[in-house]
Amino acid sequence: MQIPFTKMQGAGNDFVVLDETRERFGLSTAQYRFLADRHFGVGADQILTVRPSPAPGIDFEYVIHNADGAQVEQCGNGARCFARFVRDAGLTTKDAIRVQTKSGVIEPVLTADGRVTVNMGAPVFDLPQIPFAPGQTLPVPDGLWQKWPLELDKQAQVAIQMVAVVSMGNPHAVQVVDDVDTAPVLQVGPLIEHHPFFPNRVNAGFMQVQSRRQIRLRVFERGAGETLACGSGACAAVVAGIRLGVLDTTVDVLTHGGVLTISWAGGAAPVLMTGPATTVFHGRIELPPALS
Ligand SMILES: N[C@@H](CCC[C@H](N)C(=O)O)C(=O)O
């Protein structure tokens, strides 16, 4: 089977976008993995699938698969690319698009400067909803920052990591580091991702606070490894920093792939994320029959 696709990127977080508004391709987990494969497929951190409206008042459904082929709830950079895709493909003429994701309805808005702002909804701190299941034996977290100790690999000298846990529709564990360039993201990231306290695994963020309005961030993403940027991870880091009291309500997040601007007024207010969304190329690819 041969399918059409569009390659996109948002701050270097890259995507294969599939248009299933007319017909479903019915891809298997192995086929999503193949599309994401940088050697044998197209190459992407996530596969985004656009489907027709599932309900009145909603414009589209948007389905996200990580590079490992698993379906996940949320993808911030993907939401911006989704909005750019449906406009450029002529699937809508709207600037503000309501889209159903696995974790709820989000609202990307195409702005006059060519960027996209996404209302990502309110952050969730309720532990079972994240989900974060630390059991009974853990000491109570630091009340303000809600940092939790994770016991990791003692031999690798990363015994205890203090993380803030938050859901932006998907789970995040954020820690503050002195310097993201030397932070052990590739060593510690996978240990946090698979830590038993996170029953659905987790995205591991490493944030360096440069000022009250600027951070640097690297994220080891669940199911994808370190990416050049993670939109929901940027939202989670800024929310954690605001709760810590070290960040203002609007913050520029510097990633290896570009800048995202995140705003959060606190409490039940939604987190707003603004950043770029770019089409790289269009193509068609033959899916190996053995993978179906
Ligand atoms: N790159 C994304 C997040 C994609 C999903 C994530 N890896 C997860 O498993 O939750 C973003 O920009 O938010």
UniProtKB/TrEMBL annotation:
The EC number(s) given in the record are: 5.1.1.7
Q: Where in the cell is it found?
A: Cytoplasm
Could be important to modulate the pK values of the two catalytic cysteine residues (site feature) positions: H172, E221
Q: Which reaction does it catalyse?
A: (2S,6S)-2,6-diaminopimelate = meso-2,6-diaminopimelate
Q: In which pathway does it act?
A: Amino-acid biosynthesis; L-lysine biosynthesis via DAP pathway; DL-2,6-diaminopimelate from LL-2,6-diaminopimelate: step 1/1
Q: InterPro entries this protein is in?
A: DAP_epimerase_DapF
Q: What role is this protein assigned?
A: Catalyzes the stereoinversion of LL-2,6-diaminopimelate (L,L-DAP) to meso-diaminopimelate (meso-DAP), a precursor of L-lysine and an essential component of the bacterial peptidoglycan.
Q: Which family does it belong to?
A: Belongs to the diaminopimelate epimerase family.
Name of the molecule in the record: Diaminopimelate epimerase
Protein source organism: Rhodoferax lithotrophicus
